[in-house]
Design goal:
- The complex is a heterodimer.
- Chain A is α/β, with parallel strands linked by helices.
- Chain A is built from seven helices and 13 strands.
- Chain A has a single domain, classed as 3-Layer(aba) Sandwich (Rossmann fold), CATH 3.40.50.620.
- In chain A, the strands form two sheets. Chain A has a nine-stranded mixed β-sheet, with helices on both faces.
- In chain A, a hairpin with a 3-residue loop joins strand 8 and strand 9.
- Chain B has two domains: about 170 residues, Rossmann fold; about 120 residues, Rossmann fold (3-Layer(aba) Sandwich), CATH 3.40.50.
- The model of chain B has no long low-confidence stretch (mean pLDDT about 95).
- By secondary structure, chain B is of the alpha/beta class.
- Strand 12 of chain A pairs antiparallel with strand 9 of chain B.
- Bound molecules: flavin-adenine dinucleotide (2 copies).
- Chain A: InterPro entries: ETF_a/b_N, ETF_b, ETF_beta_N, Rossmann-like_a/b/a_fold.
- Chain A: It comes from Actinacidiphila acididurans.
Chain lengths: ~260, ~325
């Protein structure tokens, strides 16, 4: 039987751009170009490798995001995923992580899955908790923050390099995994892949398709609120000296003046 | 007065510093009640009490070590049900954040991660967060349920505030999902004898400019002269020169020390995301145009192999 893999990918503002907040204190999506979160490329890559190792597998990429989020899906499809699901609804604007996990859980259930693969964290919200929330909602094991992962005979195994220890983990399918940027470089889409992606199916869903009431999501449905966002004052220009043979000593003088030595 | 749950991060009862910082923050919101899971509660309790814990709820079971995350969520949920706290504070580690999020969902509450400060507000706790690689500072609030907030290390001072801190047994029943993900084996990270990266007052980091694994000795020597932790950029980690556990940045550790010294690091946005909130930043780089100098309180344009050893000698001389 075919292994059904669903990869959750996020469309984010480019981190190298001038990211900021809009007037309603949500992410300003007009200020900077968007793209597939770089950390989710690792999730797509691991899904592709797991699929290649399986006899028969199908990869669906899912995103919850605005119209332009299709770009993120196209990128994942051009890397080799088979089909895509795009959840888009005006009512989603300003949804918090609890609400996003609800929508993603419904979308993943709608698609059907044996394995859900996510990135370690988005590059904009950077919370790193959506995978755990999704596992909680789906009622499947969470096998997260993996730097190495494999699937064999209905079992997921992987290595989680934590703060205090490196752990070898194991769980039975269906399960959810998240992978880190240590899991292996993501492939570049080939020209053939880019052409093929144009013909791959993208299913569009809105909240009513998923049986979610608009009051459960969006800024209004959020269980947390941002009251204030202020640009961090630019750091005041420091002293920059050129090393003319005494640079180390000058630096020591500065550290002493600041009472570090 | 309302009680505030503090999740204790510890190794066999040795309480890690971020937990003591949480107790400081918890006292601003109410009476801290510590939740200690796994072995060592009797060892931890006096330390927790000294820093303000009025009670220590303790549970020990093999599940906490043998299965990932969920058993701890079950226990915290039981504690929250028993205490009906005004808030729950959890240290912001990878695991801490996962525990906090699942707990919040079960309690029907919102969650805020990576706070760098928490204060009491009229409508409940107000959390300060850094956003977009620390280019912005936000103030947020939970609007539904029991606020669950994870807090980064070095966000508050450790303060002594003696309280009773008696150990009480916490009754935990594990749910169906608790044994879902088995920890088959665990290899503890080797101790370097240096301070913990996220907790250190001073961090000395090396980047691609260090040029090789063996050259990291230059960075380590400076770190040791200052009693500092050693960090590395992703370029240095990807090259295999230094362990990933020492990586500073978006996909590594986020640090906020009193002093950060960047050596041979250009200052890419993803690196800045992990160190920009450091109090004082010093950079050594041979390229005067390197973006790291935009952040630096003091910078030396020069070859790190000249500057850093000279600095190390000078530090040693001054410290006598
Ligand atoms: C600066 C900032 C701070 C925020 N702080 C909070 C907060 O404290 N509390 C709160 O509730 N919300 C917060 N949010 C909102 C939150 O980021 C969004 O709700 C978001 O959809 C989920 O969180 P994340 O991006 O941090 O996901 P993470 O948990 O970091 O994402 C992990 C993985 O989940 C998957 N994923 C995440 N989002 C999507 C998506 N939309 N579609 C498909 N897959 C996805 C990806 O695989 C990703 O790699 C914040 C947003 C920003 C921009
Ligand atoms: C999704 C994503 C996540 C990332 N996460 C992280 C992260 O967590 N941490 C991180 O650090 N990066 C991260 N990066 C990578 C980041 O973009 C940069 O590539 C990286 O930080 C560069 O490291 P570097 O400054 O050491 O190397 P370079 O940018 O190559 O800089 C080396 C510097 O050393 C200087 N130099 C060379 N020789 C000497 C010498 N002898 N003396 C003095 N100076 C010298 C050079 O002038 C140069 O400025 C991430 C990237 C992405 C896309």
């Amino acid at each position: 039987m075919s292994l059904r893999i669903v990869v959750a990918v996020k469309y984010v503002p480019d981190a190298t751009g001038d990211r900021r907040f809009a007037a309603d204190l949500t992410t300003d999506r007009d200020a900077v170009d968007g793209l597939l979160s770089e950390l989710d490329e690792y999730a797509v890559e691991q899904a592709l490798q797991i699929a290649e190792a399986a006899d028969d597998a199908e990869i669906t990429v899912v995103t919850v995001g605005p119209e332009d989020a299709k770009d993120a899906l196209r990128k994942a499809l051009s890397m080799g995923a088979h089909k895509a699901v795009h959840v888009e609804d005006d009512a989603l604007h300003g949804t918090d992580v609890i609400g996003t996990s609800l929508v993603l859980a419904k979308a993943v259930e709608h698609t059907g899955f044996d394995l859900v693969v996510t990135g370690m964290a988005s590059t904009d919200g950077t919370m790193g908790v959506l995978p755990a929330l999704l596992a909680e909602r789906l009622g499947v094991p969470q096998v997260t923050l993996l730097s190495q992962v494999s699937v064999e005979d209905g079992t997921v195994t992987g290595r989680r390099d934590g703060d205090a220890a490196s752990e070898q983990l194991q769980a039975s399918l269906p399960a959810l995994v998240s992978v880190t940027d240590q899991s292996g470089e993501a492939r570049y889409p080939s020209f053939k892949g880019i052409m093929a992606a144009k013909k791959k199916p993208v299913e569009s869903l809105d909240l009513s398709d998923l049986g979610i009431d608009a009051s459960e999501v969006g800024l209004g449905g959020a269980w947390s609120a941002v009251d204030e966002a202020t640009a961090r004052p630019a750091r005041t220009a420091g002293t920059i000296v050129k090393d003319e043979g005494e640079g180390g000593k000058q630096l020591a003088e500065f550290l002493a003046s600041q009472k570090f030595i | 007065m309302a009680e505030v749950l503090v999740y204790v991060d510890h190794v066999d009862g040795a309480v890690r510093k971020p937990t003591l910082e949480l107790l400081t923050l918890a006292r601003r919101l109410g009476e801290p009640v510590a939740v200690h899971l796994g072995p060592g509660a009797e060892t931890a309790a006096p330390v927790l009490a000294e820093h303000g814990a009025t009670r220590v709820l303790a549970a020990d079971a093999p599940e906490f070590a043998d299965y990932l995350v969920v058993p701890k969520v079950d226990a915290l949920e039981a504690a929250a049900q028993a205490v009906q706290p005004a808030a729950v504070l959890v240290p912001s580690s990878g695991e801490g954040k996962e525990i906090a999020a699942r707990l919040a969902l079960r309690l029907g509450s919102g969650v805020i991660t990576d706070a760098v400060d928490v204060e009491a507000g009229e409508q409940g706790p107000v959390a300060t967060q850094s956003a977009f690689a620390a280019a912005f500072t936000t103030k947020s609030r939970i609007t539904r349920g029991t606020p669950v907030i994870t807090v980064k290390p070095n966000s508050a001072p450790v303060e002594t505030a003696p309280a009773a801190g008696a150990v009480e047994a916490l009754e935990v029943t594990f749910g169906d999902l608790a044994r879902g993900t088995k920890v088959v084996s665990r290899t503890p990270r080797e101790s370097t004898g240096r301070p913990e990266l996220t907790e250190a007052a001073i961090v000395v980091s090396g980047g691609r400019g260090v040029g090789g694994a063996e050259n990291f000795a230059v960075v380590e020597a400076l770190a040791d002269s200052l009693g500092a932790a050693v960090g590395a950029s992703r370029a240095a980690v990807d090259a295999g020169w230094y362990p990933h556990s020492n990586q500073v940045g978006q996909t590594g550790k986020s640090v906020s020390p009193q002093l950060y010294i960047a050596n041979g690091i250009s200052g890419a946005i993803q690196h800045r995301a992990g160190m920009q909130t450091s109090k004082t930043i010093v950079a050594v780089n041979k390229d005067p145009e390197a973006p790291i100098f935009d952040l630096a309180d003091y910078g030396v344009v020069g070859d790190l192999f000249q500057v850093v050893p000279q600095l190390t000698e000078e530090v040693k001389a001054r410290k006598g």
